[in-house]
Amino acid sequence: MEKAVVLRVNGRLNIPLREIELTYSRSGGPGGQNVNKVASKATLRFNLRSSPSIPEAARQRALAKLAPRLTGEGDVVLSSGLYRDQPRNREAVLERLRQLLAAAVAVPKKRVATAPSAAARERRLTDKKARARLKRDRAARASAE
């Protein structure tokens, strides 16, 4: 099986894996004695601010949306120690980065202003008059008693 050399974020955005720094360390969680011997936790570092693979407009959207998650240098840092083996944690952390970037670079849809239909306006006014009549009758009954 050949390893992918790019991370496909969406149809137009691919990030070469050489821009992503992956490190491994010992992970907590299940695994017994294995935890003390194997570096299975994957930590990913990707510099969003200086990546040449991301178009400028998409970079600005991503920087704005991911601002709380970025380091001072503009790095996104993610880690995964969910699995007991390194390859699965590597895939999990790459998938998290893919999802994060896909959501961050997505162009928000333009809001189309709509007006209520004539029937909807008529229903609203009819309901409003009925409610006013109910309250007026209630007040008249209370003052008569």
Task: Note down, in words, how this protein is organized.
Helix 1 crosses helix 2 (86-105). The protein has 3 helices and 5 strands. The termini are far apart. 14% of the residues are buried. The mean pLDDT is 85. It has 2 domains: 6-105, Double Stranded RNA Binding Domain (2-Layer Sandwich), CATH 3.30.160; 114-145. The strands form 2 sheets. The chain has a 3-stranded antiparallel sheet, covered by helices on one side. A two-stranded antiparallel sheet has the order 1-2. Strand 1 (6-8) and strand 2 form a beta hairpin. With 145 residues, the chain is an alpha+beta fold.
Sum this structure up briefly.
By secondary structure, the chain is of the alpha+beta class.
SSE diagram, text form:
Blueprint (H helix, E strand, L loop, with lengths): L5 E3 L5 E3 L3 E6 L15 E7 L8 H10 L9 E6 L5 H20 L12 H27 L1
Helix pairs in contact: 1-2
Computed Rg = 28 Å
The N- to C-terminal Cα distance equals: 88 Å
Outline type: elongated
Mean pLDDT: 85
Based on the coordinates given, report the CATH architecture of the largest domain.
2-Layer Sandwich
Strand count: 5
Figure out the total of helices.
3
Give unreliable regions as ranges.
none
Strand content: 15-25%
Q: Provide the number of structural domains.
A: 2
Please give the order of strands in the largest beta sheet: 3-4-5
CATH topology of the largest domain: Double Stranded RNA Binding Domain
The portion of residues assigned to helices is 25-40%
- Give me the strand/helix succession: EEEEHEHH
CATH class descriptor of the largest domain:
Alpha Beta
Largest sheet: 3 strands, antiparallel
Derived structural class: alpha+beta
